[in-house]
């Protein structure tokens, strides 16, 4: 059976009581979002005296929708990856909340938020020692069952290119390859073109697996680049180099090595939260290029190369 012949996806929550329980569970999170991003809305109608009914739930849902419309996916991502409120239960309630609308009513923003939340939920639920080979569609569907319901996943034909994109990503040896290969853009394009089909359960499972695996590739390459930069900085210090021309990475022409080391440490924290961080990601790639360039120049000078080699032996 192909995706188009499947019955429409029905959200797991149906009753007024269940909807009310989800909104109550999300009230502290949305209150924090409103404060964090200074959103101009009325007071949340969900309080200690809130009693779920068709009327009260509809009123509360309208308030939550107002907040949803003013929260961008990057803000939700930033908030959930820095707040102590973001446990497995909260992310599950957020997913159920965003999937209450019919597919026709969902916007591109709803899709992007759902996509992020699915991967975040899977990441929270999956064991830390999970091997790549174990992350197949059946396992992802099993983990996502509390929000998508029981599934017998099969990769939709229109998403067959996801596997080749993953293979291309896995073949990247440096972060620059991943960034400029177009792999990330190909995945985003598929999500954008999917439109309402994104919300078919089989598609959500496939995209969640894809994004989780791409995130793993990114973290591996990101750590490799940061380690290479730090190794390069140590080598340059042993050669007596105090500054690096980092204009290509939007820093100064004489950037102190000590400051570059601090920047790398801060990036380890920042990039831990998001694998498609735009301009900062390109700065990281360009910084490695700048450090590698200076290392090559130093290596071409016999006296400096000899000094570096002596320092390696002492360490």
Structural class: mainly alpha
The mean pLDDT is 85
Count the DSSP helices: 14
**In percent, how helical is the residue content?**
55-70%
Strand content: under 5%
Rounded to the nearest angstrom, the radius of gyration is 24 Å
Q: Terminal Cα separation, in Å?
A: 63 Å
Could you say how many structural domains there are in total? 2
Could you say which overall geometry the principal axes of the C-alpha atoms support?
A: globular
Instruction: Let me know the largest β-sheet.
Output: 2 strands, antiparallel
What is the H/E string? HHHHHHHHHHHEEHHH
Strand order of the largest sheet: 1-2
Word description of this protein:
By secondary structure, the protein is an all-alpha fold. The chain folds into two domains: 1-124, no CATH class; 218-314, no CATH class. It contains 14 helices and two strands, in the order H-H-H-H-H-H-H-H-H-H-H-E-E-H-H-H. The chain has helices spanning 16-36, 54-70, 73-80, 88-98, 108-125, 137-143, 145-148, 161-170, 175-180, 183-194, 201-238, 257-273, 279-299, 302-314; strands at residues 243-244, 255-256. Strands 1-2 form a two-stranded antiparallel sheet. The longest helix is centred in the C-terminal third of the chain and has 38 residues, at 201-238. It is globular. The relative contact order is 0.09. Residues 1-13 have low confidence and may be disordered.
């Amino acid at each position: 059976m192909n995706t188009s012949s499947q019955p429409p996806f029905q959200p797991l929550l149906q009753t007024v009581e269940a909807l009310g329980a989800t909104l109550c569970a999300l009230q502290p999170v949305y209150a924090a979002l409103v404060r964090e991003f200074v959103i101009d809305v009325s007071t949340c109608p969900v309080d200690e005296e809130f009693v779920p009914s068709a009327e009260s739930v509809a009123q509360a849902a309208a308030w939550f929708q107002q907040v949803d419309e003013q929260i961008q996916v990057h803000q939700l991502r930033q908030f959930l990856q820095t707040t102590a409120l973001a446990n497995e239960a909260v992310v599950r309630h957020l997913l159920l909340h965003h999937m209450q609308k019919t597919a026709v009513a969902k916007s591109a923003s709803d899709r992007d938020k759902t996509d992020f939340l699915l991967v975040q939920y899977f990441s929270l639920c999956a064991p830390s020692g999970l091997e790549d080979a174990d992350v197949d569609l059946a396992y992802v569907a099993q983990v996502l069952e509390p929000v998508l319901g029981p599934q017998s996943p099969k990769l939709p034909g229109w998403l067959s290119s996801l596997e080749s994109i993953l293979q291309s990503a896995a073949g990247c040896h440096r972060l620059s390859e991943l960034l400029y290969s177009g792999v990330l853009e190909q995945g985003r394009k598929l999500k954008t073109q999917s439109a309402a089909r994104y919300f078919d359960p089989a598609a959500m499972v496939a995209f969640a697996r894809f994004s989780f695996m791409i995130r793993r590739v990114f973290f591996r390459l990101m750590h490799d680049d940061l380690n290479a930069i730090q190794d390069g900085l140590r080598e340059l210090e042993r050669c007596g180099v105090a500054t690096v021309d980092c204009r290509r990475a939007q820093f100064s022409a004489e950037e102190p090595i000590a400051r570059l080391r601090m920047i790398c440490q801060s990036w380890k924290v920042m990039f831990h939260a998001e694998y498609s961080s735009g301009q900062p990601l390109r700065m990281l790639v360009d910084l490695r290029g700048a450090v590698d360039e200076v290392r090559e120049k130093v290596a071409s000078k016999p006296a400096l190369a000899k000094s570096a080699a002596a320092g390696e032996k002492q360490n």
